[in-house]
Design brief:
Layout: H1 2-23, E1 31-33, H2 35-48, E2 51-61, E3 67-78, E4 82-89, E5 93-98, E6 101-106, E7 111-116, H3 125-128, H4 135-138, E8 139-147, E9 150-157, E10 164-172, E11 175-183, E12 188-198, E13 216-220
Parallel strand pairs: 7-13
Antiparallel strand pairs: 1-8, 2-3, 2-12, 3-4, 4-5, 5-6, 6-7, 8-9, 9-10, 10-11, 11-12
Protein backbone atom coordinates (compact mmCIF):
# COMPACT_ATOMS: atom_id res chain seq x y z
CA UNK A 1 0.00 0.00 0.00
CA UNK A 2 2.84 2.38 0.79
CA UNK A 3 4.33 1.76 -2.66
CA UNK A 4 1.00 2.52 -4.35
CA UNK A 5 0.59 5.70 -2.29
CA UNK A 6 4.13 6.72 -3.18
CA UNK A 7 3.47 6.22 -6.91
CA UNK A 8 0.21 8.18 -6.70
CA UNK A 9 1.96 11.00 -4.85
CA UNK A 10 4.74 11.08 -7.46
CA UNK A 11 2.19 11.16 -10.29
CA UNK A 12 0.35 14.03 -8.63
CA UNK A 13 3.61 15.96 -8.21
CA UNK A 14 4.36 15.44 -11.91
CA UNK A 15 0.87 16.71 -12.78
CA UNK A 16 1.47 19.76 -10.59
CA UNK A 17 4.72 20.58 -12.36
CA UNK A 18 3.02 20.12 -15.74
CA UNK A 19 0.32 22.57 -14.68
CA UNK A 20 3.01 25.05 -13.65
CA UNK A 21 4.74 24.67 -16.99
CA UNK A 22 1.46 25.38 -18.77
CA UNK A 23 0.35 28.25 -16.53
CA UNK A 24 2.31 30.94 -18.39
CA UNK A 25 3.58 31.21 -21.98
CA UNK A 26 6.88 29.35 -22.45
CA UNK A 27 9.56 30.95 -24.60
CA UNK A 28 10.97 29.05 -27.54
CA UNK A 29 14.49 29.28 -26.16
CA UNK A 30 13.64 27.78 -22.75
CA UNK A 31 16.58 25.66 -21.65
CA UNK A 32 16.55 22.72 -19.26
CA UNK A 33 19.49 22.73 -16.85
CA UNK A 34 21.09 20.15 -14.52
CA UNK A 35 19.39 19.68 -11.15
CA UNK A 36 22.63 20.73 -9.45
CA UNK A 37 22.30 24.24 -10.89
CA UNK A 38 18.96 24.64 -9.12
CA UNK A 39 20.29 23.10 -5.93
CA UNK A 40 23.20 25.57 -5.81
CA UNK A 41 20.90 28.55 -6.41
CA UNK A 42 18.48 27.47 -3.68
CA UNK A 43 21.23 26.74 -1.19
CA UNK A 44 22.90 30.06 -1.98
CA UNK A 45 19.64 31.93 -1.41
CA UNK A 46 18.86 30.16 1.87
CA UNK A 47 22.42 30.45 3.21
CA UNK A 48 23.09 34.06 2.21
CA UNK A 49 19.70 35.69 2.80
CA UNK A 50 18.80 36.07 6.47
CA UNK A 51 16.20 38.83 5.98
CA UNK A 52 14.19 40.08 3.03
CA UNK A 53 11.61 42.71 2.22
CA UNK A 54 9.60 42.98 -1.00
CA UNK A 55 6.35 44.12 -2.53
CA UNK A 56 4.27 41.28 -3.94
CA UNK A 57 1.47 40.85 -6.45
CA UNK A 58 -0.49 37.60 -6.18
CA UNK A 59 -2.87 36.09 -8.73
CA UNK A 60 -4.81 32.86 -8.41
CA UNK A 61 -5.89 30.91 -11.51
CA UNK A 62 -8.52 28.18 -11.64
CA UNK A 63 -7.72 24.69 -12.95
CA UNK A 64 -9.03 25.94 -16.31
CA UNK A 65 -6.59 28.87 -16.30
CA UNK A 66 -9.11 31.60 -15.50
CA UNK A 67 -7.97 34.57 -13.40
CA UNK A 68 -9.92 34.08 -10.16
CA UNK A 69 -8.46 36.51 -7.66
CA UNK A 70 -5.70 39.11 -7.40
CA UNK A 71 -4.14 40.75 -4.36
CA UNK A 72 -1.01 42.64 -3.37
CA UNK A 73 0.94 43.75 -0.36
CA UNK A 74 4.24 43.67 1.49
CA UNK A 75 6.40 40.69 2.53
CA UNK A 76 8.92 40.76 5.37
CA UNK A 77 11.00 37.68 6.13
CA UNK A 78 13.54 36.84 8.82
CA UNK A 79 15.14 33.43 9.13
CA UNK A 80 14.44 31.23 10.91
CA UNK A 81 10.67 30.95 11.07
CA UNK A 82 9.61 34.58 10.98
CA UNK A 83 7.60 36.11 8.15
CA UNK A 84 4.89 38.68 7.58
CA UNK A 85 2.64 38.54 4.49
CA UNK A 86 0.77 41.83 4.82
CA UNK A 87 -2.04 41.83 2.22
CA UNK A 88 -3.23 45.37 1.52
CA UNK A 89 -5.39 45.07 -1.62
CA UNK A 90 -8.20 44.34 -2.37
CA UNK A 91 -8.73 44.08 1.41
CA UNK A 92 -6.41 43.83 4.42
CA UNK A 93 -5.30 40.42 5.66
CA UNK A 94 -2.26 39.26 7.59
CA UNK A 95 -0.37 35.96 7.68
CA UNK A 96 2.39 36.15 10.28
CA UNK A 97 4.84 33.76 11.94
CA UNK A 98 6.67 34.92 15.06
CA UNK A 99 9.00 31.93 15.38
CA UNK A 100 6.60 29.92 17.51
CA UNK A 101 3.07 30.63 16.30
CA UNK A 102 1.38 31.16 12.93
CA UNK A 103 -1.32 33.83 12.79
CA UNK A 104 -3.94 34.31 10.06
CA UNK A 105 -5.79 37.56 10.66
CA UNK A 106 -8.84 39.02 8.92
CA UNK A 107 -9.36 42.54 10.31
CA UNK A 108 -12.69 43.05 8.52
CA UNK A 109 -14.14 39.94 10.19
CA UNK A 110 -12.34 40.80 13.46
CA UNK A 111 -11.10 37.22 13.55
CA UNK A 112 -7.65 35.64 13.98
CA UNK A 113 -6.67 31.98 13.75
CA UNK A 114 -3.50 30.95 15.57
CA UNK A 115 -1.68 27.62 15.60
CA UNK A 116 1.70 26.28 16.65
CA UNK A 117 4.44 26.62 14.04
CA UNK A 118 5.73 23.05 13.86
CA UNK A 119 7.10 20.46 11.42
CA UNK A 120 3.63 19.82 10.00
CA UNK A 121 3.85 23.24 8.34
CA UNK A 122 7.41 22.79 7.03
CA UNK A 123 6.25 22.04 3.47
CA UNK A 124 4.03 25.10 3.18
CA UNK A 125 5.25 27.79 0.75
CA UNK A 126 5.14 30.49 3.43
CA UNK A 127 7.40 28.50 5.75
CA UNK A 128 9.67 27.30 2.93
CA UNK A 129 11.44 30.65 2.53
CA UNK A 130 11.97 31.25 6.24
CA UNK A 131 12.23 27.75 7.71
CA UNK A 132 15.23 26.41 9.57
CA UNK A 133 15.18 22.88 8.14
CA UNK A 134 17.27 21.66 5.21
CA UNK A 135 15.10 22.32 2.17
CA UNK A 136 15.82 18.95 0.56
CA UNK A 137 14.57 17.14 3.65
CA UNK A 138 11.14 18.50 2.80
CA UNK A 139 11.22 18.95 -1.00
CA UNK A 140 12.70 17.19 -4.00
CA UNK A 141 14.03 19.21 -6.94
CA UNK A 142 12.23 17.88 -10.02
CA UNK A 143 13.22 20.25 -12.83
CA UNK A 144 15.44 23.28 -13.47
CA UNK A 145 14.94 25.59 -16.48
CA UNK A 146 16.08 28.94 -17.76
CA UNK A 147 12.93 30.55 -19.12
CA UNK A 148 11.41 34.06 -19.41
CA UNK A 149 14.76 35.46 -18.26
CA UNK A 150 14.49 33.55 -14.99
CA UNK A 151 16.21 30.54 -13.48
CA UNK A 152 13.22 28.39 -12.48
CA UNK A 153 13.51 25.63 -9.90
CA UNK A 154 10.54 23.23 -9.69
CA UNK A 155 9.98 21.46 -6.37
CA UNK A 156 7.62 18.80 -5.06
CA UNK A 157 6.90 18.02 -1.38
CA UNK A 158 8.45 14.69 -0.39
CA UNK A 159 5.63 13.54 1.87
CA UNK A 160 1.99 13.00 0.83
CA UNK A 161 -0.63 15.05 2.62
CA UNK A 162 0.73 18.47 1.73
CA UNK A 163 -1.69 21.25 0.80
CA UNK A 164 -0.06 21.61 -2.63
CA UNK A 165 1.36 19.46 -5.41
CA UNK A 166 4.25 21.45 -6.82
CA UNK A 167 6.12 24.71 -6.41
CA UNK A 168 8.33 26.83 -8.68
CA UNK A 169 10.83 29.45 -7.51
CA UNK A 170 12.05 31.96 -10.11
CA UNK A 171 15.36 33.80 -9.66
CA UNK A 172 17.23 36.62 -11.35
CA UNK A 173 20.80 36.26 -10.11
CA UNK A 174 20.45 35.88 -6.33
CA UNK A 175 17.05 37.63 -6.13
CA UNK A 176 13.83 35.66 -5.77
CA UNK A 177 11.35 37.37 -8.11
CA UNK A 178 8.58 34.80 -8.55
CA UNK A 179 6.86 31.99 -6.67
CA UNK A 180 4.22 29.73 -8.24
CA UNK A 181 2.38 26.82 -6.70
CA UNK A 182 -0.28 24.29 -7.64
CA UNK A 183 -2.66 23.30 -4.85
CA UNK A 184 -4.59 20.05 -4.55
CA UNK A 185 -7.54 21.52 -6.49
CA UNK A 186 -5.21 22.16 -9.46
CA UNK A 187 -5.42 25.91 -8.85
CA UNK A 188 -2.26 27.85 -9.67
CA UNK A 189 -1.15 30.77 -7.48
CA UNK A 190 1.51 33.08 -8.92
CA UNK A 191 3.34 35.63 -6.76
CA UNK A 192 5.62 38.21 -8.38
CA UNK A 193 8.04 40.13 -6.16
CA UNK A 194 9.29 43.67 -6.76
CA UNK A 195 11.41 46.19 -4.83
CA UNK A 196 13.27 43.23 -3.36
CA UNK A 197 15.79 44.15 -0.65
CA UNK A 198 18.14 41.44 0.62
CA UNK A 199 19.27 41.43 4.25
CA UNK A 200 17.65 44.67 5.47
CA UNK A 201 17.66 45.44 9.20
CA UNK A 202 14.44 43.93 10.60
CA UNK A 203 13.73 43.68 14.32
CA UNK A 204 11.67 40.92 15.91
CA UNK A 205 8.88 43.37 16.74
CA UNK A 206 7.97 43.42 13.03
CA UNK A 207 6.92 39.78 13.45
CA UNK A 208 4.86 40.12 16.61
CA UNK A 209 1.08 40.24 16.66
CA UNK A 210 -1.09 41.29 19.59
CA UNK A 211 -4.83 40.89 18.91
CA UNK A 212 -6.74 44.11 19.54
CA UNK A 213 -9.54 44.20 22.06
CA UNK A 214 -12.67 42.59 20.62
CA UNK A 215 -10.79 40.35 18.16
CA UNK A 216 -12.14 36.78 18.04
CA UNK A 217 -9.10 34.50 18.42
CA UNK A 218 -9.46 30.85 17.38
CA UNK A 219 -6.69 28.51 18.53
CA UNK A 220 -5.95 25.40 16.47
CA UNK A 221 -3.47 22.58 17.13
Amino acid sequence: MKSIASHLHKARACLGILLLLCSVPTLVNAQELPIEVGRERLQGFLENVSTLSARFSQTMFSAEGDDQQSSSGLLLLKRPNRFRWDYQLPYPQLVLADGEKLWSVDPDLEQAVVRTLDDSLAASPAVLLSGGRDLEEVFSIELVKRDEGLLKVYLAPREPGSDFQALCLGFIDDRLVRLELVDNLDQVTRIDFSDVVLNPELDDESFQYVPPEGMDVITQG
